[in-house]
Amino acid sequence: MIDVILGLQWGDEGKGKIVDFFAPNYDVIARFQGGPNAGHTLYVNDKKVVLHQIPSGIFHQNCVNLIGNGVVLDPVTLKRECDTVASFGIDVRKNLFISEKTNVIVPTHRALDKASELQKGDSKIGSTLKGIGPAYMDKTGRNAIRVGDLLSKNFTTQYIKLRLKHQKLLDNFHFIEDISAWEEEFFEAVEFLKTLNIVSGEYFINNKLAEGKKVLAEGAQGSMLDIDFGTFPFVTSSNTISAGVCTGLGVSPQKINDVIGVTKAYCTRVGGGPFPTELHDEVGEALRKQGNEFGATTGRPRRCGWIDLVALKYTCMLNGITKVVMTKADVLDSFKELNVCTGYEINGKITQEIPFEINRTIITPEYKLFNGWNTDTTAIKNATNLPNEMSVYINFINQFIGAPIKYVSNGPAREQIISL
Ligand code: GDP
Ligand code: IMO
Ligand code: MG
After folding, report:
1. Considering only the top CATH level, what class is 263-419?
2. Ligand 2 atom nearest to CA at 297
3. Considering the entire predicted model, what is its pTM?
4. Of 71, 133, 180, 228, whose CB count within 10 A is highest?
């Protein structure tokens, strides 16, 4: 069976830490979508590591890791990540596998991402500029180069054809950038990639399942950034919700068992787009400071606000969430009062549904106020020692979203997690 761990908000919920924590229970950890726009932070022997494309099970010797066909893969970032992982004594040739159907990000994808954002001006998405949108466009436009193509003698011809197509688009954008240095790095990284384990991802994973192995699918981004159901167009270009697991790995829906959703105890977003509970005051600033809310991939300050239960209930519904992990609860340790958004007021009416016009609608969040716990929770190991105010906060959220919070994470380290 396959379990899934994915983000329920706008990304950076702490998926990397949670996957790393659960990894010892699994034989295979697989990424099914996204690419180097993701930044998943883990602590290995007290050292911070940020993974972008390699699944977060890589530091566990008993797991194998698969980059699935639904991912868009940048060989340059991958090579750098492999070097980092190797510095911890991990042999990626032993426990990393890449689907031959994974789409490849080429240097002109990154240039196109930049050109497109520049053209959008004030309404830019706030993309990580890693080439994600253009790479997925080439996938659905049926022009992409896939990892398996790198092994073919036609690869260079295919690459030149794609580059020419991109050049025409860049000319239309009047965008000029010298990509020769990127290209040099790209071809070097392609040679490296060719030495890794390239497999048929769908047979790989289905064979593992047939052998009775346990698989964990690791989501990137968050459900509110899903291409279909997120705050479009301020979204990423893949299906980040649980449905993406089937197409992103080549497994059938019947194989999916637990869908574990990760949410922060508050909320953040990086990049543009609507964020109804965003705080532009000193409370938002305090959340950013306490939570060290700066992007793991781009270093940008994250926008911060209260937890949004309208959005959370929506993403629990979309994903079929069976268990929730609440992360960064410790970040709220010193807040006297906490707000929880229970509805959106739009034109004088309260709704508990995400409106289609979310980008063009003025939303006033309806809040329920809770007392903070004003206790350092970072050393707590057992649910019975949680402050009462935290239990009240958690129970209310449980009831509202209709999915059980089973774990609370109370610090960035692997062992800082409490089972409820
Ligand atoms: P991901 O993209 O969902 O994997 O999350 P990121 O790694 O981008 O961002 C989460 C950040 O919060 C990282 O810096 C983590 O080290 C940190 N983190 C994860 N869980 C906790 C927690 O429970 N408490 C605190 N204080 N930090 C956490
Ligand atoms: P992880 O996996 C937070 C955001 C970008 C931008 C929008 C589109 O670490 O949670 P893209 O680069 O995909 O064109 O950007 O999505 N975004 C993320 N925000 N965490 C991420 O990944 C993100 N990946 C993309 O900031 O608003
Ligand atoms: Mg992240």
Report:
1. alpha beta
2. 9
3. 0.97
4. 71
> From the CB of 7, is ligand 1 less than 6 Å away?
yes
Rounded to 5 degrees, φ, ψ at 300 are: -70, 145
Residue 256 near residue 321 (C-beta atoms within 8 A): no
Which entry of 3, 20, 40, 109 is annotated as an active-site residue?
40
Taking the domain 2-101+198-260, which CATH number applies?
A: 3.40.440.10
pLDDT confidence band for 296 (50 / 70 / 90)? confident
pLDDT for residue 298 is more than 90? no
To test the pocket of ligand 1, the residue of 5, 41, 54 to mutate (highest count of ligand atoms within 8 Å of its CB) is 41
Q: DSSP states of 95-136 as a string?
A: HEEEETTPEEP-HHHHHHHHHHHHHHGGG------SSHHHHH
Collapsing DSSP states into helix, strand and coil, what is residue 224?
helix
Pocket of ligand 2 (CB under 6 A): 7, 11-12, 37-40, 125-128, 130, 132-133, 220-222, 225, 236, 270-272, 296
Residue 103 makes CB contacts below 8 A (sequence gap 6+) with 69, 71, 72, 73, 135, 136, 138, 139, 144, 145, 146, 147
Find the mean pLDDT for residues 207-222: 98
Residues 193-215, mean pLDDT to the nearest whole number: 98
CB neighbour class for 50 (10 Å; exposed up to 12, middle 13-18, buried from 19): middle
User: Which alpha helices (H) appear in 257-336, and where do they start and end?
Assistant: 282-290, 309-319
330 lines ligand 1 (CB under 6 A): yes
Average pLDDT, the chain: 97
pLDDT tens column, 48-64: 999 999 999 999 999 99
Is residue 113 annotated as a catalytic residue, yes or no? no
Ligand closest to CA 332: 1
Q: Is the pLDDT of residue 297 over 90?
A: no
CATH architecture of the region 103-193: Orthogonal Bundle (1.10)
Task: Read off the pLDDT of residues 369-403 as tens digits, 9 standing for 90 and up.
Answer: 999 999 999 999 999 999 999 999 999 999 999 99
pLDDT digits (tens, 9 = 90+) for 68-102: 999 999 999 999 999 999 999 999 999 999 999 99
Catalytic residue, chosen from 12, 20, 113, 308, is 12
* Domain assignments of the chain as residue spans, ordered by start: 2-101+198-260, 103-193, 263-419
Q: Residue 191: exposed, middle, or buried by beta-carbon count in 10 A (0-12, 13-18, 19+)?
A: exposed
